[in-house]
């Protein structure tokens, strides 16, 4: 499974979270603790918002722990909203186009999980992507397909509902194909202003995800960056959390919406 980090708050240098902590994302790329495999060496990526409307992006196929360019970039880039992701591939190629985060216009998305039996439903799932968005399908991962399908299903109007509809459509196709493997979806999504985090799995066993909020910052991480720090809260196993600056986090249950739509 992959590991990721999402930050929203006062501008900080990326290195403060991606590289510096004792259990930083770079450290997790080689020594993850809350996953079956400790190594996430099939590429990495960072995406950040700066002066322009669309986010900047840097993705590479080398392991995060061995890329000196990543450390240099993180020491120079300062942002108030950024994503970082280290990848453990689940059957698709290790290419730059398959590394997270994925970007479309102002939107940015990253995912930890998989569609069980993906090869058996892949062709049908790509049919969920509208023609005017299909040209943005640059890689081969199920993660990118989910993102583009959700964009096709109203993500820009109501992100949480669109993601729930997309997951329900995917689950329906899996059930029709007789796939018994789970659909697992732990993810982060943003338009550069609002941060959404999702933790759901069809078998009730999604990957870990934690939230920590302070007066001026929100962190969403696969694993706490420093367990000596207070405030890490595990996000519920079927929850979508929406965080807007200066407002209380909104929590929505995904099980009921996905289950009723996929039935």
Major sheet description: 7 strands, antiparallel
* Mean pLDDT metric: 94
Strand content: 25-35%
Q: Based on helices, strands and strand pairing, what is the structural class? A: alpha+beta
What's the count of strands? Answer: 13
> What spatial order of strands do you see in the largest sheet?
3-2-4-1-10-9-11
Number of domains as seen in the coordinates: 1
Gross geometry: globular
Number of helices: 8
The CATH homologous superfamily is called Aminohydrolase, N-terminal nucleophile (Ntn) domain
Name the helicity range: 25-40%
Low-confidence stretches: none
Order of helices and strands: EHHEEHEEEHHHHEEEEEEEH
CATH architecture: 4-Layer Sandwich
First-to-last CA distance: 28 Å
